[in-house]
Amino acid sequence: MTFKVFVDGQEGTTGLRIHEYLAGRADLEVLKIDADKRKDAAERARLINASDITFLCLPDAASREAAAMVTNPQTCLIDASTAHRTVPGWTYGMPELAPGQRDAIRAGKRIANPGCHASAFVLAVRPLVQAGLLPADAPVTATSITGYSGGGKSMIAQYEAGGDAALTAPRPYALALAHKHLPEMKAHTGLARPPVFMPIVASFYKGLAVSVPLHLSSLKPGTTGAQLQQALAEYYAGERFIRVMPLSDPDTLADGFFDVQACNDTNRVDLFVFANDTQAVVMARLDNLGKGASGAAVQAMNVHLGCEESLGL
Ligand SMILES: NC(=O)C1=CN([C@@H]2O[C@H](COP(=O)(O)OP(=O)(O)OC[C@H]3O[C@@H](n4cnc5c(N)ncnc54)[C@H](OP(=O)(O)O)[C@@H]3O)[C@@H](O)[C@H]2O)C=CC1
Ligand SMILES: CC(=O)N[C@@H](CCC(=O)OP(=O)(O)O)C(=O)O
């Protein structure tokens, strides 16, 4: 059986990368829209409804518009945007989130792909809340360092134009403390409040690492760094795309510096706990265009189609 797949937003950063993942898949027929019609609502609606799977790789408003175009009950949408991640009726497209999440992705026809920063944060924090080590009402904070491709075509063009000295240094942003990933960070971790979150974009193309600093005294009494690491390792045992590293892994910091780009060109997430007797930092690293966007979207499709086990990514 061949499944028909359409990418709405095929010329964008996420859409192009999805096409690379789909190339060579004998089980899929990729439907293409003519370049001059790619924003033509009627033509997009025709292709969406001719597909078994449509990836929405669009700004939020265009994603909502596309979702309203679906009339074919067989069509499954996988939305890369922020539009539907905490909307009832949509399944969060993170198979490793919880037992039962793969079944929900298999059954659902509306799948919301996690945000890149949120993917790293949720995967790092949820197991600690579930294990009772991190109280749900703890005052959690997080920073994220990301490559500029996370900002899509316009930010890539800005960085690659050159000539602006401000862009050569890392730039903290979202300092209104209302980043668009906060609702899903709260909803999918079990935290009572979203974290205080400060992302930083820097002058490298891709790669992302979220850091969550913790005072052990604010955790369940007696919690150690080893227990945090063990909780993550147990939660993700058997997950092929999640690698939980040894506590305070000396190899990672062989030269004293953390490599934000070491998951690039993979669909992998690496999780780390660095700790001493009183403090810990939990970190998650991924490729923002891999597990942070296009890789995760293709993985969700594979789960939906029941072929996750048999295919690589
Ligand atoms: N880049 C990343 O790391 C991640 C991105 N995302 C999300 O994925 C979505 C796509 O992001 P990204 O690929 O980076 O963005 P880009 O800006 O690179 O691409 C978006 C594409 O959508 C097209 N588009 C805009 N409006 C419409 C419309 N009405 N109809 C059809 N096409 C339209 C744009 O056209 P044109 O070429 O004319 O501009 C562009 O090609 C966004 O919601 C983003 O937030 C999610 C996770 C990570
Ligand atoms: C560098 C940069 O600007 N990054 C984007 C994140 C991209 C992303 O993941 O956005 P979605 O919510 O659409 O998934 C940002 O922080 O807004």
Automatic annotation (TrEMBL):
Keyword Ligase in annotation: no
Catalytic activity: N-acetyl-L-glutamate 5-semialdehyde + phosphate + NADP(+) = N-acetyl-L-glutamyl 5-phosphate + NADPH + H(+)
Active-site residue numbers: 116
Alphabetized GO MF terms: N-acetyl-gamma-glutamyl-phosphate reductase activity; NAD binding
Top-level taxon of the source organism: Bacteria
Any Gene Ontology CC annotation: cytoplasm
SMART domains, sorted: Semialdhyde_dh (SM00859)
Protein name: N-acetyl-gamma-glutamyl-phosphate reductase
Source organism (scientific name): Ideonella aquatica
Upper classification of the organism: Bacteria, Pseudomonadati, Pseudomonadota, Betaproteobacteria, Burkholderiales
